[in-house]
Amino acid sequence: MPASLPTTAKPLDHLALAGEPDAPALVLRDRTLTHKDLRESVGRLAAWLQGQVPERGARVASWATKGELTCLLPLAAARAGLVHVPINPLLKRAQAAHILGDSGTRLLIGTAARLATLEAGDVPPDCLTWSEAEALAAYSAATVLGPSCADPGELAAILYTSGSTGKPKGVMLSHANLWLGAESVASYLDLGGGDVTLAVLPLSFDYGQNQLLSTWRAGGCVVPLDYLTPRDVLKAVGRHGVTTLAAVPPLWVQLTELDWPPETAARLQRLTNSGGALTIDLVRRLRGLFPGARLFPMYGLTEAFRSTYLDPALVDSHPTSMGQAIPHAEILVMADDGGIAADGEEGELVHCGPLVAQGYWQDPERTAERFKPAPLQSCYGGIAVWSGDRVRRDADGLLYFVGRRDAMIKTAGNRVSPQEIEEAALATGLVAEAVALGVPDERLGQAVHLVVRAVPGCPEAETELPRKLLQELPNFMQPKVIHWRSAMPISPNGKIDRTGLYAELAA
Asked: What is the DSSP letter of 455?
């Protein structure tokens, strides 16, 4: 069990103070920063930012791949009294322009090639623009700004969702949200000063940014990596002695298809997953490939950072469980009648406590839809995130995902969980990835469409999959159409792009 945690959050930039001065903190392409270097660099960048944008609470955006600036900005902006807005480097001009305009960005730092794609009107008129190279050279000459005395309740970052429904929403996160999230994860992962985290996820993603924050909270070292192929990840694990790797299911699938040298696989001590559930087959493959690593399946919401994790000791016996609440989180399963759902009864997952974000930036209407008063049964009270996700809790207190309320397929009068169809397809051993979608149908209301990628070297998959699904699923859950893909489309956050698939099939 994780150690008990202090309940007092600190200003976010104080995370730079945690490690031993001479211990490595950040491995860059040309050099390694110690924790002493990290403190000085955060202070210099904060001083430079404050000189550029003296208005407290102004937004500072970054649009660049992983590197010195993108790794330091979360702490440096916080120290300068500014609000960091990381833009995923995979986003295109129009998406970046929306985020810049919506957030009212006052300073944009980006790679020259990305900045060159911007057109007239894309950048707010009062926004300064610096190339990454220019900003690196400029900030290194600044004096060091000392640790801040910010109220932990102040806004520290706005993280924009990937825009799965409509335009991206900016989730407002306070110093306390980010500090307590780092503290919580460092605790239950049991991170320490000797750990090395390979940061492969986008830093604009809450799960990705926490790779930095939780590791530095524990005094460890981060190796940022923008990989081109999964093999780049394998090589980096061996090269840097990586102990901790976080990924989303599509990447885990690709990593398990590689031939890992035993000595490289043995370096990994912990694997963490979020952004989608692990299948039973994938859990078994990960456990077989990395027998010495503890596997942490997790469930999270950008609006509340992280909600649950499954104790690695229970992964083999309960491979489909979401686990239980992480430290600093209270998770309730609310029945449709307003009471706490009974064991085994389906209900809505409601996240209460200090990890709950401050709402959506300048969007009171959508904030009111998701951020509502906590149930009376909550120990914390205040505002809670009503997730819309349907879950159930067993007699041992373990949670299981049923499906999203707005993602359930309504076909011929039946409510069908896409996850159940996907799990059935994956359980056949014929496909490596599967996505079930409800596509409008005049007769059925919605018809089940299944998009799959065959297991490599499995020529019989196309003929065998329909037959096996007929054996395993009731008639109303059978796919009307099975679409075969050589590769699944991937969203900017590394997840399978369900929205893009739906748009393609529904067109």
From this structure: P
CATH number of 407-506: 3.30.300.30
Residues 477 and 420 sit within 8 Å (Cβ to Cβ): yes
- Evaluate if residue 6 carries a pLDDT over 60: no
Structure tokens at 376: 């009376």
| pLDDT more than 90, % of the chain | 81
Helix residue ranges, H only, 57-174? 68-79, 93-103, 112-115, 132-139
Q: What token pair was written down for 370?
A: 């998701």
Quote the tokens at residue 251: 């990447």
Range(s) for CATH 3.30.300.30 in the chain?
A: 407-506
Which residues belong to CATH 3.40.50.980 in the chain?
7-226
From edge to edge, which strands make up the β-sheet containing 155-160?
Answer: 128-131, 105-110, 59-63, 83-86, 155-160, 170-174
Give the domain 7-226 fold. Answer: Rossmann fold (3.40.50)
Residue 65: partners with Cβ closer than 8 Å, 6 or more residues away: 89, 111, 226
Beta bridge partners of 490: 496
Q: Which of 71, 19, 17 is nearest to 39 (CA)?
A: 17
3-class DSSP state for residue 274?
coil
pLDDT of 162 reads: 58
d(CA 423, CA 425): 5
CA 497 to mean position of chain CA atoms:
14
348 in Cβ contact with 358 (< 8 Å)? no
- Three-state secondary-structure class, residue 116: coil
Q: Is 400 exposed, middle or buried (0-12, 13-18, 19+ CB in 10 A)?
A: middle
For residues 86-107, b (16+ Cβ closer than 10 Å) or e, as one string?
bbbbbbeeebbbbbbebbbbbb
List, in order, residues 6 or more apart from 120 with CB less than 8 Å away. none
Residue 254 CA to residue 271 CA, distance in Å, equals: 15
- Mean pLDDT for the chain overall: 93
How many secondary structure helices (H) and strands (E) does the chain include? 15, 25
- Rounded to whole angstroms, the maximal C-alpha distance in the chain is 69
pLDDT tens digit sequence for 329-377: 999 999 999 999 999 999 999 999 999 999 999 999 999 999 999 999 9
Sign of CA dihedral 447, 452, 458, 459: positive
Q: How many Cβ atoms sit within 10 Å of the Cβ of residue 492?
A: 18
Measured CA to CA, the distance from residue 356 to residue 180 in angstroms comes to 11
For 349, 409, 415, 437, the CA distances from 405, given in Å and listed in that order, are 11, 9, 10, 13
